[in-house]
């Protein structure tokens, strides 16, 4: 499978998983990634989809990006600063246009270079965060989650989701790994204990916990545990 096919397959998979939740799909983040590097796109789609359960749309140029923006109310954009036929200055003009249309839309910049001039220009144009492409995927996902948490547009779209969302089981909203983490929360495990059981870093568990809170519409571990309707009947995590 070539890189372009991989991106299309992963993006389709993330979108399909989101829409399986039916009317709750709009409560999930709608993210647009604009980048012309297939491997970068594939990595971002996989990382964002596995942690946020987002509907991730990818584009490789501004022409396609504007089509997507007109068709979808996105909650966050990840933008490569240097695209084909769009140097940093042109990209910043496009960002300024977007920021003028919707000042509440979080725009995060990805760049292979990080000169002071580009950094200053991007932030002055309306971008909120400047990220280097060499950043660990976990760091990028954390930044995305933080910006979504602050996003007025995402809070509004979540609030407008149908009431049926409250009756949806956690399993319909979470990835398999997030369900593992939620089981640990329901049984009183700390992030450190969950990380040890699942064989991963505690910082990764923190990212999962933030995503779980967002997906379930809760603000603390007690509320998350209560969302598991009969925790005593769940299989206690092994390890």
Q: What does this molecule look like?
A:
The chain is built from 12 helices and 5 strands. It is of the alpha/beta class. It folds into 2 domains: 3-156, 3-Layer(aba) Sandwich (Rossmann fold); 169-233, Winged helix-like DNA-binding domain superfamily/Winged helix DNA-binding domain (Arc Repressor Mutant, subunit A, Orthogonal Bundle). The model is unreliable at 1-25, 155-168 and 229-236 (pLDDT under 50).
Short structural description:
The chain is of the alpha/beta class.
Give the biggest sheet. Answer: 5 strands, parallel
Overall CATH architecture of the largest domain = 3-Layer(aba) Sandwich
Average pLDDT figure: 75
Strand order of the largest sheet: 2-1-3-4-5
Supply the CATH class of the largest domain.
Alpha Beta
Principal-axis shape equals elongated
Cα radius of gyration in angstroms: 18 Å
The count of β-strands is 5
Alpha carbon gap, first and last residue: 36 Å
Q: Structural class, please?
A: alpha/beta
In percent, how helical is the residue content? 55-70%
Tally of structural domains:
2
CATH superfamily of the largest domain: Response regulator
Task: Give the CATH topology of the largest domain.
Answer: Rossmann fold
What is the count of DSSP helices, taking H or I runs of 4+ residues? 12
Q: Strand content of the residues, in percent?
A: 5-15%
Question: Segments where pLDDT lies below 50 for 5+ residues?
Answer: 1-25, 155-168, 229-236
Order of helices and strands: HEHEHEHEHEHHHHHHH
């Amino acid at each position: 499978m070539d890189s372009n096919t991989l991106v299309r397959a992963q993006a389709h998979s993330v979108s399909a998983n989101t829409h399986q939740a039916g009317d709750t799909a709009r409560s999930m983040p709608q993210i647009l990634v604009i980048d012309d590097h297939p491997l970068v796109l594939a990595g971002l789609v996989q990382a964002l989809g596995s942690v946020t359960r987002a509907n991730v749309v990818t584009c490789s140029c501004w022409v396609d990006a504007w089509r997507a923006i007109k068709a979808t109310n996105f909650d966050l954009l990840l933008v490569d600063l240097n695209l084909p036929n769009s140097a940093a200055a042109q990209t910043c003009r496009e960002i300024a246009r977007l920021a003028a249309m919707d000042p509440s839309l979080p725009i995060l910049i990805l760049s292979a270079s990080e000169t002071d001039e580009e950094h200053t220009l991007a932030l002055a144009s309306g971008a909120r965060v400047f990220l280097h492409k060499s950043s660990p995927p976990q760091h990028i996902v954390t930044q995305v989650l933080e910006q979504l948490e602050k996003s007025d547009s995402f809070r509004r779209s979540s609030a407008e989701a149908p009431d049926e969302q409250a009756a949806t089981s956690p399993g319909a909203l979470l990835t398999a790994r997030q369900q593992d983490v939620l089981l640990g929360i329901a049984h009183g495990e700390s992030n450190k204990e969950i990380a040890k059981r699942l064989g991963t870093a505690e910082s990764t568990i923190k990212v999962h916990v933030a995503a779980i809170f967002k997906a379930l519409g809760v603000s603390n571990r007690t509320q998350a545990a209560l969302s598991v309707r009969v925790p005593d009947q769940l299989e206690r995590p092994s390890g």
